[in-house]
Specification:
The structure is a single chain. The chain is α/β, with parallel strands linked by helices and 485 residues long. The chain folds into 2 domains: 307 residues, Aminopeptidase (3-Layer(aba) Sandwich); 150 residues, Alpha-Beta Plaits. Helix content is 33%, strand content 20%. It contains 15 helices and 19 strands. The strands form 5 sheets. It has a 6-stranded mixed beta sheet, with helices on both faces. A hairpin with a 7-residue loop joins strand 1 and strand 2. It is globular, with a radius of gyration of 24 Å.
Length: 485
Amino acid sequence: MKIKFPAVKMVRMILMGCVAAMSLPTVGQSVTGLGQQERAEAREIFQQLIEINTTDSVGNVTTAAEAMAKRLRDAGFASEDVQVLGPTERKKNMVARYRGRAGSRLKPILLIGHLDVVEAKREDWTTDPFQFVEKDGYFYGRGTQDMKDEDAAMMEAFLRMKRAGYVPDRDIILALTADEEFGNQNGVEWLVKNHRELVDAEFVLNPDSGGVDSDHGKPVEMSVGATEKLYADFALTATNAGGHSSRPSPDNAIYHVADALGRIEKYKFPFELNEVTRAYFAKMQTLVPKAQGDAMRGVLETPPQKKAIDELSKDNWYNAVMHTTCVATMIQGGHALNALPQMARANVNCRILPGHTPAEVRAELTKIVNDPKVTIQLVDNGGQPSNANENKMALPPPPLSPTLFGALEATVQQMWPGLPIVPDMMTGASDSKYTAQAGMPSYGVGGTAVDITDDRAHGKDERLPVESYYKGVEFYTLLLQQLTK
């Protein structure tokens, strides 16, 4: 679920100190430049992934996992270092280990990327979403932005380094997984619970929650997902005996649910900042128009100014940064055109600030709705009622690793001199929540640039600039070498 940051329109103005480009590692042979054969191979991998349907409804993640495993084995990775495993036949994950220097006591680095994609209807697209199409300087296809581009880039980085004989100073693990978008067999969660030894690492890189933002093709910032909100869905349900529609009754299941949604729409969860969002506003206050800057200074005061909170909340992005948010996303009800509804149900999707749980939010929703005829249930990734994760909490931000940020600054300055690196909070959620909860600090880091005017993740005609993809391949190769020299 790749989510870019709309605030980049302001962040592009940030002036940050630049770090001089550092030399590439000397352990083994470093890999520089992307040759024509490597471009062809990287394109082939990208195309192969796009053309394997990995939707939850009819797709098969295992097929994609096996295809990537074969490429690594064919390139010389030992069979025991490339495994395909998972809970069901359609939802297997690939875990590959790039062996580091013999005797190294450094813990591995884990890279994670989901192979599954959201549903896409052929009739909605101008091209077939499951055909890799190159036209007008773009690659089209479901997953070109979210996130088969980064999966392919990480794969090609592994292959390039292997061919060059590069020996990192520690193991590097690549996990390509199932069910990040939808489904109840999440691959990262399953691996952490069932095969921790395969994915245990010092820290985790996840391109799904960070990357390069560009404006009309010009890179303007490298966002790093330093923390994120917790995802939760709630089913609001009302039932009734029904009856003949010629005898209307105010005790109508659809009316109850509609009234509940209206109350939720008008409600605003309490204001709250954390370490990352406080630092974000502290930097932004001097870079935005005066009125917004004054409001940002106001929310940073102790206590915060209510007027300032209200002013910033008019912007959807800033509102989501400062509050837990809940919004109706689906509704169903009734069984016949000429009958009173016997059931109505709505899905309310919430994005919960770090430090809070779905149980807390459900209790708050119950107070807001204030209707005994409406039941509110937490639902799982498969859409079924389940309280199993009601006490799960979005974790506080991890420490900003000097190892990671030093390597990232060197890589960014080599590829995009002067580009600012901005730690941020995702208003959405990603698989980083599973690795973070397992005690592995997790960061959103990616290298394929998506234009702020052309964010099509989860949408129709999803596409990625051709050269942006190749830059992403080079980025991950350079970053991994900087991290493991």
